[in-house]
Amino acid sequence: MLCLAGASWSFAQASVRLDELTGLKAAAGTVRNVCQQEAQRIEAWQTNSSAAGEKHRKTPGADEFEIDGACVNTTQGWKEMRVGAFAKRTPGPPAAPSEWGTRKMPPPGARVGFAAIENHEAFAARWPLVASRLGIRTNAPLDVWADGAKWIWERVGFHFPHAPGTLDIYHALEHVAQTAKGVHGDGTNLAHVPSGSEMKN
Fold it and tell me: What is the secondary structure of the chain as a DSSP string?
């Protein structure tokens, strides 16, 4: 319960919610310590267990890799936590642009996630190791989903040179909007980028 609460909320909030919902009293520091101990066990299991790799190899679908980052509050202040997830998913039906915001993609049949608070060189060095345990080779046609961060695409090109990249539509439209403002002027009708609902109409 401490790990579930600590993964769902901040450690301080987890301490309060556990007391409210279960009557269990655990200080925020206790929640943190338990979560960190469990994290070490999870990482050891992912590194040494063959179960995740066997399931991934047997699952039908195409390999994909999702990468992102989030700022987290640590005992040394705010830092960036980098997150990666290898998954296997069967393809869904095609969708028009007006459906991108509402369509539901098939859920992945297998997924292995990992995260670390470290610089991007160290984090990217993990990718081929995790991929190898899942049976994903460096020459695999891995579909990478990410935002426009330069370090991500540079490291993808280095570790997975045959991987096609997919820039998510929201970050792509940010570039379109900035270009339109630069060409036509901010606030003008020509610089307006329609939302998903407007495109549908």
Answer: -HHHHHHHS-HHHHHHHHHHHH-----HHHHHHHHHHHHHHHHHHHHH-SHHHHHHHHS-SEEEEEEEEEEEEETTEEEEEEEEEEEEE-------GGGTTT--PPPPSEEEEEEESS-HHHHHHHHHHHHHHTT--TTS--EEEE-S-HHHHHHHHHH-TTPPEEE-HHHHHHHHHHHHHHHH-TTSGGGPPP-HHHHH-
Q: What's phi and psi for 23, nearest 5 deg?
A: 80, 0
For residues 163 and 85, the answer to whether their CB atoms sit within 8 Å is no
For residue 72, what are the contacts with CB-CB under 8 A and spacing of at least 6? 78, 79, 80, 81, 117
Q: What is the pLDDT of residues 82-127, one digit of tens each?
A: 999 999 999 999 988 888 778 888 999 999 999 999 999 999 999 9
Map tokens 């993609």 to a residue.
105
Q: Which two tokens stand for residue 4?
A: 């579930």
pLDDT of residue 80: 92
> Is the predicted pLDDT of residue 195 greater than 60, yes or no?
no
The pLDDT tens digits of the residues spanning 44-82 come to: 888 888 888 999 999 999 999 999 988 887 878 899 999
List the chain domain ranges.
1-48, 55-167, 171-201
